[in-house]
Design a protein that fits this description.
With about 475 residues, the protein is of the alpha+beta class. Helix content is about 25%, strand content about 25%. The protein contains 13 helices and 23 strands. The chain has helices at about 5-15, 30-40, 70-75, 85-90, 175-185, 200-205, 215-225, 300-320, 350-360, 380-390, 395, 450-455, 465-470; strands at about 20-25, 50, 60-65, 100, 110, 135, 140-145, 150-155, 160, 165, 190-195, 230, 240, 245-260, 275-285, 290-295, 325-330, 335-340, 365-370, 395-405, 415, 420-425, 425-435. Strands 5, 7, 8, 10, 11, 14 and 15 form a seven-stranded antiparallel sheet that branches. Helix 4 crosses helix 8 (about 300-320) and helix 8 crosses helix 9. The longest helix has 22 residues, at about 300-320. The radius of gyration is 24 Å and the shape is globular. The chain starts with a helix and ends in a 5-residue tail after the last helix.
Length: about 475
Amino acid sequence: MAQDLRTYLRQLAEFDKRSVRLVDKEVDPRFGITGYAAALAEKGEYPALLFNRVKGADFACVSNLLTEYERIALYLGCEVQDIPRVYGEKLQKPIAPVVVERSQAKVKENVIAEQDVDLGKLPIPVHNEMDGGPYLSAGVMIIRDPDSGLINAGIYRHQIFNATDMGVWFLGAHHGGLIYKKYKKMGKPAPIAIALGHHPGFVMGSVSRVQGIGGEYEAAGALMGEALELVQAETSDLLVPAHAEIILEGEILPDEDHPEGPFGEWPGHYLGGGSVPTIRIKRITHRNNAIFQDIVASSREHLVVGGVPRSGSIYQTVKEVVPSLKTVHVPFYARMHCYISLHKEREADVKKAAFAALNTEQENLRHIVVVDDDIDVFNGEEVAWAIGTRFDAERDLLVIPKWNGPGGLLPTNWEYSKEGKNTPRMSAAAIVDATKPAPPIVFPKRAVVPREHIDLADLEVLTEPGTDGLGKWL
């Protein structure tokens, strides 16, 4: 059986039954869905949430699904600390998709004709307080390059304008935006499809750093460990995921822009927006009992979904220039940072690794911290300890002026005025060398308990005595 959103939900529930919670109470799509996620986050809990009854909607909604590294490790079949390596290695072995017959495609179980399209029937949330309206945040937009014929897939933000129309916001050199401009130059609408609800491997494959236009379907296959099954779209020559929950089919109009925003983006601020191209939806296909998938915008899930694919791509790039790399980590709590651990054989290794990372993720990385291989980069306390004990700001800090921008989603890439007008600017990046000197220099050793004695500790004998058990001392 092909993997999809439902096979993953089953796998996750079997792995940890508390990781999936059902909300069987009517919720308002305006802040109701994200309200549950925010309330649980305040308690330090991040379960996947399945909303069975969303006001005005015909479908269920799953949100908060990919909030924990353990859930990524689950589908990759590895330990958390191995995610960047395994992710990166899988991307080096792409698996080509396969096309199946319409009768085999579960997403074709129901077809909504153009005259019956109503985006209001989807449980599309308004995520945060100042958002301009409902937004698709987990929709994978699929578009074919008219020159090469290659299909590109990526996640963009889509504000819903009315029953049939939505926007699409492209940033910088997004491949989808480059392809759209080709259609616009020809004065033609760009056929697109938006896939909603699929296996995490498909979702993350669509945001992986794949060189050139296309390749996301192959990346998804690599991450899923099997060929992604595709089927012919209803209204165009696009091939779409056969086992998605919902497919929206339409086109980007070449000459109809619409004001968009604001929208709370992953850095946790309101930036971007303006006038964006309009998508008109002409057909919807969906599975029986379809599950609409949402990513909680400007939240932990938003950061994990964006950060893990970057870690995998950065791992491969850095490994090529510094083979002694151990691992990398783009933390969900600060996706502008990248922590790199390596076995430093020469002083130049630090700068080579750092610049390789910066050039892989030029738009968003601001601070590269390089540490030794005895530091767990998934533990922020260890990284902070390495900076405190192995970093000298006068000697080990490299600032690269005017690296990021101008503009974009990072707040420091703008100048602000009391009139409320923003002017795009460039901002700097920094490399923090928190490593010990390279051999043969001798650096003070770290104080640790011998590993063999840690392994000898019998944790099974531990009890919780309470006050009664502590009686003779109390």
